[in-house]
Amino acid sequence: MHRFAASLIMAALAGCAEMPAPSPAAQVSPAAQQPGSARALAVARLQAIAQGDIEAIQRGYADDAILQWVGGPLDGVYQGRAQLAAPWQRFAAAQGVLHATFGASSESANPRGATVITPVIFVGQGGTIKVRHVVVIRGGQVVDEIWQVDPALTL
Predict the structure, then answer these.
(1) What range does the domain containing 45 cover?
(2) Which among 53, 47, 45 is positioned nearest to 140, based on CA atoms?
(3) pTM above 0.70?
(4) Tens of pLDDT along 110-133?
(5) Helix, strand, or coil here: 99?
(6) Residue 34's domain is classified under what CATH number?
(7) Hey, what's the torsion of the CAs at 129, 105, 133, 109, to 10 degrees?
Protein backbone atom coordinates (compact mmCIF):
# COMPACT_ATOMS: atom_id res chain seq x y z
CA MET A 1 0.00 0.00 0.00
CA HIS A 2 2.77 2.43 0.89
CA ARG A 3 4.56 1.79 -2.42
CA PHE A 4 1.30 2.38 -4.27
CA ALA A 5 0.76 5.70 -2.47
CA ALA A 6 4.37 6.73 -3.07
CA SER A 7 4.01 5.90 -6.77
CA LEU A 8 0.88 8.04 -7.02
CA ILE A 9 2.61 10.97 -5.33
CA MET A 10 5.66 10.69 -7.57
CA ALA A 11 3.46 10.56 -10.69
CA ALA A 12 1.52 13.59 -9.51
CA LEU A 13 4.63 15.59 -8.70
CA ALA A 14 6.24 14.71 -12.03
CA GLY A 15 3.34 16.32 -13.91
CA CYS A 16 3.27 19.47 -11.80
CA ALA A 17 5.37 21.65 -14.08
CA GLU A 18 3.16 20.89 -17.08
CA MET A 19 -0.08 22.14 -15.52
CA PRO A 20 -1.38 25.38 -17.04
CA ALA A 21 -2.63 28.14 -14.78
CA PRO A 22 -6.42 27.89 -14.52
CA SER A 23 -8.73 30.79 -15.15
CA PRO A 24 -11.51 31.27 -12.58
CA ALA A 25 -14.06 29.98 -15.12
CA ALA A 26 -11.99 26.82 -15.64
CA GLN A 27 -11.97 25.78 -12.00
CA VAL A 28 -14.49 23.02 -12.66
CA SER A 29 -14.27 21.45 -16.10
CA PRO A 30 -17.32 20.17 -18.01
CA ALA A 31 -16.01 16.60 -17.58
CA ALA A 32 -15.93 17.11 -13.82
CA GLN A 33 -19.55 18.24 -13.83
CA GLN A 34 -20.91 14.91 -15.08
CA PRO A 35 -22.75 13.37 -12.12
CA GLY A 36 -21.09 10.22 -10.87
CA SER A 37 -17.78 10.78 -12.60
CA ALA A 38 -14.72 10.27 -10.43
CA ARG A 39 -13.54 13.80 -11.19
CA ALA A 40 -16.94 15.21 -10.15
CA LEU A 41 -16.73 13.28 -6.87
CA ALA A 42 -13.18 14.54 -6.26
CA VAL A 43 -14.15 18.16 -6.98
CA ALA A 44 -17.24 17.90 -4.76
CA ARG A 45 -15.04 16.46 -2.03
CA LEU A 46 -12.56 19.34 -2.27
CA GLN A 47 -15.43 21.82 -2.18
CA ALA A 48 -16.79 20.11 0.97
CA ILE A 49 -13.33 20.32 2.53
CA ALA A 50 -13.18 24.05 1.71
CA GLN A 51 -16.58 24.56 3.34
CA GLY A 52 -15.67 22.50 6.40
CA ASP A 53 -18.60 20.15 5.68
CA ILE A 54 -17.49 17.16 7.77
CA GLU A 55 -20.69 15.22 7.06
CA ALA A 56 -20.16 15.41 3.28
CA ILE A 57 -16.49 14.51 3.65
CA GLN A 58 -17.30 11.47 5.79
CA ARG A 59 -20.15 10.36 3.52
CA GLY A 60 -17.69 9.95 0.64
CA TYR A 61 -15.55 7.36 2.40
CA ALA A 62 -15.79 3.58 2.16
CA ASP A 63 -15.95 1.94 5.60
CA ASP A 64 -12.29 0.93 5.59
CA ALA A 65 -10.87 3.92 3.67
CA ILE A 66 -7.34 5.14 4.31
CA LEU A 67 -6.19 8.77 4.47
CA GLN A 68 -2.48 9.51 4.14
CA TRP A 69 -1.98 13.08 5.40
CA VAL A 70 1.56 14.00 4.39
CA GLY A 71 3.02 17.11 6.04
CA GLY A 72 1.66 19.75 8.38
CA PRO A 73 0.32 19.33 11.91
CA LEU A 74 -2.09 16.53 10.95
CA ASP A 75 0.61 14.37 9.32
CA GLY A 76 -0.21 10.70 9.74
CA VAL A 77 -2.18 7.71 8.54
CA TYR A 78 -5.87 7.43 9.39
CA GLN A 79 -8.01 4.38 8.60
CA GLY A 80 -11.70 3.62 8.98
CA ARG A 81 -14.60 6.03 9.39
CA ALA A 82 -14.05 6.55 13.13
CA GLN A 83 -10.43 7.69 12.65
CA LEU A 84 -11.13 9.65 9.47
CA ALA A 85 -13.42 12.19 11.12
CA ALA A 86 -10.83 13.49 13.59
CA PRO A 87 -8.32 15.12 11.20
CA TRP A 88 -11.08 16.79 9.17
CA GLN A 89 -12.73 18.15 12.33
CA ARG A 90 -9.40 19.56 13.51
CA PHE A 91 -8.65 20.97 10.06
CA ALA A 92 -12.05 22.67 9.75
CA ALA A 93 -11.82 24.10 13.28
CA ALA A 94 -8.36 25.54 12.60
CA GLN A 95 -9.02 26.87 9.10
CA GLY A 96 -12.67 27.93 8.96
CA VAL A 97 -14.26 28.31 5.54
CA LEU A 98 -11.62 28.32 2.80
CA HIS A 99 -11.42 29.72 -0.69
CA ALA A 100 -10.17 26.97 -3.04
CA THR A 101 -8.46 27.40 -6.39
CA PHE A 102 -8.07 24.20 -8.39
CA GLY A 103 -5.37 23.38 -10.91
CA ALA A 104 -5.90 21.01 -13.80
CA SER A 105 -6.83 17.60 -12.45
CA SER A 106 -6.08 14.28 -14.09
CA GLU A 107 -8.23 11.19 -13.99
CA SER A 108 -7.30 7.62 -14.77
CA ALA A 109 -10.19 5.17 -14.82
CA ASN A 110 -11.12 1.63 -15.73
CA PRO A 111 -14.12 -0.53 -14.81
CA ARG A 112 -12.61 -1.35 -11.39
CA GLY A 113 -12.12 2.23 -10.21
CA ALA A 114 -10.54 5.59 -10.80
CA THR A 115 -7.75 7.78 -9.50
CA VAL A 116 -8.03 11.56 -9.56
CA ILE A 117 -5.10 13.89 -8.87
CA THR A 118 -5.86 17.57 -8.26
CA PRO A 119 -3.54 20.38 -7.22
CA VAL A 120 -5.41 22.88 -5.05
CA ILE A 121 -4.57 26.02 -3.12
CA PHE A 122 -6.76 26.83 -0.13
CA VAL A 123 -6.76 30.29 1.47
CA GLY A 124 -8.40 30.97 4.81
CA GLN A 125 -7.98 32.28 8.32
CA GLY A 126 -4.95 30.03 8.86
CA GLY A 127 -3.15 31.25 5.74
CA THR A 128 -2.44 29.54 2.44
CA ILE A 129 -2.39 25.74 2.18
CA LYS A 130 -1.02 24.17 -1.00
CA VAL A 131 -2.04 20.56 -1.51
CA ARG A 132 -1.71 17.82 -4.08
CA HIS A 133 -4.89 15.79 -3.53
CA VAL A 134 -5.10 12.19 -4.73
CA VAL A 135 -8.17 9.99 -4.38
CA VAL A 136 -8.82 6.41 -5.42
CA ILE A 137 -12.52 5.79 -5.97
CA ARG A 138 -14.12 2.36 -6.19
CA GLY A 139 -17.86 1.81 -6.32
CA GLY A 140 -18.49 5.55 -5.99
CA GLN A 141 -16.63 5.82 -2.67
CA VAL A 142 -13.16 7.00 -1.66
CA VAL A 143 -11.05 4.01 -0.62
CA ASP A 144 -7.67 5.79 -0.52
CA GLU A 145 -6.90 9.47 -0.16
CA ILE A 146 -3.60 11.33 -0.08
CA TRP A 147 -3.45 14.89 1.24
CA GLN A 148 0.09 15.89 0.26
CA VAL A 149 1.01 19.29 1.67
CA ASP A 150 3.15 20.82 -1.10
CA PRO A 151 4.60 24.25 -0.16
CA ALA A 152 6.21 24.64 -3.60
CA LEU A 153 2.94 24.01 -5.51
CA THR A 154 2.05 26.52 -8.20
CA LEU A 155 -1.00 26.48 -10.42
Answers:
(1) 2-149
(2) 45
(3) yes
(4) 999 999 999 999 999 889 999 999
(5) strand
(6) 3.10.450.50
(7) 170
